[in-house]
Amino acid sequence: MSRKEQILKQLAARKKAFTILGSVVVLCAVIFGLYWGFYGSRYISTDNAYTATEIAQVTPEIDGTIKAVNVVDTNSVKEGEILVEIDPRDMQVAYDKAKANYDRAKIDFDRRKALSTSGSVSADELTRSENDLAQASANFREATLNLERTTIRSPIDGVVAKRQVQLGQRVRAGTPMMVIVPLLKLHVDANFKESELEKIHIGQKVRLTSDLYGSRVVYQGVVDGFSGGTGAAFATIPAQNATGNWIKVVQRVPVRIQLQPEELAANPLSVGVSMKVRVDTRSD
């Protein structure tokens, strides 16, 4: 083969290689364009997301000694179910005294009111009796309420967590006893980059999966609201950027995503579970 033929063959091979390379580049560009047009520009995703909920704190409203504790951590409870009972004897005595005083004051007032029409009882005396009845009535209502407060019921449906109260313990009003976690009212706090928030709006549909179940369980959520500040703004020790060595860091803003109770009932989640979130920005 002559020198000229070798050169022509090499040029043909190079041309073929460049053609193939160009075709690959064009194909990649087309694939990327299709991806961006149908997916990348439509969906915004993050795995910096966790389940959360508004828990109910259970505390006594009176001082007393614990007579019974009917639940332990992980127990499911219904609204109104009895959680804790405080020894009612002291409150029962106070109730009986208040009721006796009220009954006596009521009888005394009724008698004076009947006599006042004939002039046998002065207006001042009737007024004092009426005031005594009002005071006795208030004391009786307070004693009744305190007696009812010896029975502590669940304020909501949920699961018992952080139980701290023990049988025989002397507690004061406001002492934390436990919390009730409403697992069917969980939401997700998804932390998106501040540069991504422009496309996210309330009402957009969200696809979620959890690390607990993996991709086999998909939750359908809705964007419910935005936090009033970034995570760094609400940190215990907020960042101090007014320094000479300041470096810009992209901040993340929590976005609240509402979950469906029926999906949570079918596949329960716990508070703090990691989630993967994908927002459909064209669904509003």
UniProtKB/TrEMBL annotation:
Coiled coil: none
Subcellular location: Cell envelope
Pfam annotation, one family: BSH_RND
Domain p-hydroxybenzoic acid efflux pump subunit AaeA-like beta-barrel positions: 187-277
GO (cellular component) term, any one: cell envelope
Molecular function in Gene Ontology: transmembrane transporter activity
Main location (coarse class): other
Multidrug resistance protein MdtA-like barrel-sandwich hybrid domain sequence ranges: 55-181
InterPro entries documented for this protein: AaeA-lik-b-barrel, MdtA-like_BSH, MFP, RND_pump_MFP
NCBIfam families linked to this entry: RND_mfp
Family affiliation: Belongs to the membrane fusion protein (MFP) (TC 8.A.1) family.
Protein's name according to its UniProt entry: Uncharacterized protein
Provenance organism: Fluviibacter phosphoraccumulans
